[in-house]
Amino acid sequence: MRLTVEAGGLTLQNPTILAAGILGTTGASLKRVASMGAGAVVTKSIGVEPRYGHPNPSMIKLECGYINAMGLPNPSYREFLQELEVARQAGVPVIASIFGANEAEFREVAEGLPGASAYELNVSCPHAKGYGMQLGTDPALVEAVTRAVKGAVDVPVWVKLTPNVTDITAIGRAAQDGGADAVVAINTVKAMTIDIDSGYPILGNISGGLSGPAIKPIAVKCVYELYEALDIPVIGVGGISNWADAVEFLMAGASAVEIGSAVYDGLEVFASVSMGLSDYLERKNMKLEDLVGLSHRVVKHEAHKC
Ligand code: RRO
Fold first, then answer.
1. If pLDDT is split at 50, 70 and 90, which confidence band does 305 have?
2. Is 125 in the pocket of ligand 1 (CB under 6 A)?
3. What is the reported pLDDT for 303?
4. H or E element: which one contains 282?
5. Number of CB atoms found within 10 A of residue 32's CB
6. pTM attached to this predicted model
7. How far is CA 120 from CA 133, 247, 275, in A?
8. Where do the domains of the chain lie?
9. 20 to 30 A Cα–Cα from 51, which one of 131, 132, 183, 305?
10. Best residue for ligand 1 mutational test, from 25, 129, 188 (most atoms within 8 Å of Cβ)
11. Which residues are annotated as a binding site?
12. Which residues does substrate bind (predicted)?
């Protein structure tokens, strides 16, 4: 079954995308992920200056997923440019995740990393002072940053949203008003964990962001709300580890899905999600497009009957 999809201004051979932050710091690792079946890849978030990130421990495996506070470690756009060149040989769209403290920094990074197939604006990291969700919880800032990057590049601009807000649709609308071609939902959920022998918070940064299966229902709800509220496509991310998870996100309204934490269990996840999705569509005699937003149509149909 054909899995080619148009998502947020890009054409993907299949709707699975490597999420930002995982295996995204070198061109070689991005190429390797593409060779394992990802329809597109997103880089680690890249900024103006190099950063070491937060002190260790910065990533912990829990029963229900992972909690991280990496702290935006990255080599800066100047150093990353050569990695992007390598990644571009991957044969799939390469999306540059970028961050900044303000419009000018976002614009500088986007302009300093030419050649990306699209830019994903990180306004949603939950634990980096002055960056991420500190901007991404303010609709005016999200709109301004989106507009600034949109005016500086001639490829699609996606905006990755934080779930750590009362109303994610208000932020999604701000991105749309700024000219975003898609929103990506969701980044990690604010979280922490404590060592009960010592009483110390375990992460070097004290708190961080939760990813993996625990956040899947949160992400599905965010995608569902955004699909209803916006005119631009939604890319789903959060706890997807198999084809059934991907179907759930598509039904909620995602045009494509990003996979992050599940990559730690093996790069086969991209091919196995595509294969499972294809088998599912064949069994149901449906096309991929029929799945996107299906739950909304089912709910409306039921409401109509009452
Ligand atoms: O680097 C990180 O600590 C990080 C980032 Br940029 C992000 O967007 N989300 C996250 O959970 N961690």
1. confident
2. yes
3. 82
4. helix 269-284
5. 15
6. 0.97
7. 14, 23, 27
8. 5-305
9. 183
10. 188
11. 44-45, 68-72, 122, 160, 186-188, 212, 238-239, 260-261
12. 44, 68-72, 122, 187-188
User: In percent, how much of the chain has pLDDT > 90?
Assistant: 97
Q: Tell me whether residue 306 is one of the annotated catalytic residues.
A: no
Which tokens hold the place of 65? 């997923």
Which residue, judged by its Cα, is nearest atom 10 of ligand 1? 125
User: Cα of 125 to ligand 1 centre, how many Å?
Assistant: 5
pLDDT digits (tens, 9 = 90+) for 5-52: 999 999 999 999 999 999 999 999 999 999 999 999 999 999 999 999
Amino acid at 270: F
Show the tokens assigned to 111.
């302009």
Ligand 1: distance of its center to the CA of 72 in Å? 6
- CB of residue 21 inside a 6 A radius of ligand 1: yes
d(CA 228, CA 136): 20
pLDDT confidence of residue 306: 67
User: What's the CATH fold of domain 5-305?
Assistant: TIM Barrel (3.20.20)
CB-CB contact of 138 with 167 (8 Å): no
Burial 109-124 (b: 16+ CB within 10 A, else e): bbebbeebbbbbbbbb
